[in-house]
Amino acid sequence: MDSQSSTLEIRRREMMRLAGGGLVVGGMASLAGCSGDSGGSSSSPFRIPNTQDYNTIQGNLAAGSDYDPWIIPSLIYESYLNYNIETDEIIYNLIDEPSVDGSTLTFSIKDGRKWHNGDPVTAEDVVTQFKIAMLAGGDPQLTQNNPESLFEKINQTDKHTVEVKLSGEFNKQLAIMQIFYAGATGTASLWTPTSVYGKFVTDWDNAATDSERKSVTSELLDFTVEYQDVVGNGLWQIEKTSGTEFTFSLFEDHPDSDNVNFDKIVMPRMNENDLVPAARSNNVTGFQHNNPTASAVESPPSGWKALEVTGDDSGGPALICNHQHDIYGKREVKQAFAHIVNGQGVVETLGEHIATPVPSTYTFAESLMDRYMGEPIKGNLNVYDSSEEATSLLKSAGFSQNGNTWHRPDGKPFSPTISVFDSPPFTPVAKTIAGQLSNFGIKTDVQVVEPGNFFAQFPEGSYDLVVEWWDAGGANPYFGMDRNFVGFTGGSMQYPDEVSVPPVGNMDGKEETVNIQDMLDSILTASTEPEMIQNVRKLAWVTNVTLPEIPTVMTGAVYFYNTDGWNWPKRDASVFGYDDIPAWLMEQGELSQAN
């Protein structure tokens, strides 16, 4: 793709996290659990607020910007599958479980699926979506990163069956999750009726030159669909839209419509600061908040509950060094920073109700440690928690200390700048890290950049340090490693293709060169579970030594929900481990209006 298309791809993927500032309502979160409460009867529709600007968003999910990637798709489009982060289970939703034979993946659409205009959902619609993903170089509702690295060809074998020619023989579950559990947006869903998007596929197939293909891509990125014209296939269909409120009605032809005992969802447009007051006045029914105050969590409105949730992405803010920089790319500098940066200090900034420190080996999230930490890396990794070790590392690299101030090997003051985009929690985390480095004697400034400019400049490497996202992987560390080493578009992390590290399990051994893409591929192509886990550990070793990112905390969110007039599952119900809450609860008959 050309630089313009790449920039659009960066903005599309990363700015999904900024939708609505500190709030994402309902949408793609996996709940940590909630109590089994219900109250008196209510005839009101379920009310989900949204912080998106209804006057600007539109329905083309492949557009460069200006769409809602979260809650609206979870209502109006059917997910291919849903993954439970608590139990590691998959429920196949739109499709039956795929089969994999060598490098061929085959799956079929379940019977009875329809678009909201009455047309049947067909294999052709799915093929259209796969090709749109390839055309756009990575799509917000299908596949991680560039799909061309995963599959070579796709075609329909009959009206309901799709056959995908993979680019290799991959681990079945990883391949399925790689395709249908798409990064920052969570579970992928089918949103591309051929009647609307097929023209772009036809034009792409007929394009004879790179220039013609780029023209088709540009047309797709610029194409807009007003929400009142969107054709969905999910449990809920758009009934009315305005600049202040969307209304959805139950799609009676959906196979799960009998699981729902109410027929309307109202989605008012609200500012983040209005959400808790709206809950107090019962103008909303449930919403997820990514940046609530501790007092709002500790004392929710009467009749409401507030519970910690996993959030929309498994991970949190991280310090990222410019790996190509002659100073900040030094291993000793990165490791020194890792010793200085203190996750507990970041927790104190963000609040214990939404943040927890990352284990100090910086390899796996706490929730993945039991499964993935083990021989030969367990007990042999660097543990980053020592200011004395930071001092030793810097001195070994030629840095010097004059009083309380550090100087570079050339004698100049050691004074980096952290670039960060203006959004919680990233900006306050950047300021906290800058304070920690400055207290150590490395005077550090913070440069706050408008998000669009930040993501346009980030891949160019025009920075010392940045605070951006560390991906823990969610379903599997592989997904986070792919993002953390490579980036949200090819090469955006400035991390080298090859690095030298000590042999796995022996920090004192002779260093050897490893290729990062080969190591990532070895995970994806592992034929057995033990082989996959061992290959994950090998790459975790490289992570620990070379620090593609220095994670600080895992951030979650808080889901506020009204128990007055609504029946919610009990706290220990496994259904809360799935994505697409509250839409998934409705579809499964687990959330209902009290009689």
Automatic annotation (TrEMBL):
Keyword Transport assigned to the entry: answer is: yes
| Entry keyword Transport | yes
Q: Which UniProt keywords apply?
A: Signal, Transport
The residues covered by the Solute-binding protein family domain are 97-485
InterPro entries listed in its UniProt record: SBP_5, SBP_5_dom
Q: By its UniProt entry, which PANTHER family does this protein fall under? A: OLIGOPEPTIDE-BINDING PROTEIN APPA, PERIPLASMIC BINDING COMPONENT OF ABC TRANSPORTER
Family of this protein: Belongs to the bacterial solute-binding protein 5 family.
Q: Tell me the protein's name.
A: ABC transporter substrate-binding protein
Organism of this sequence? Halocatena marina
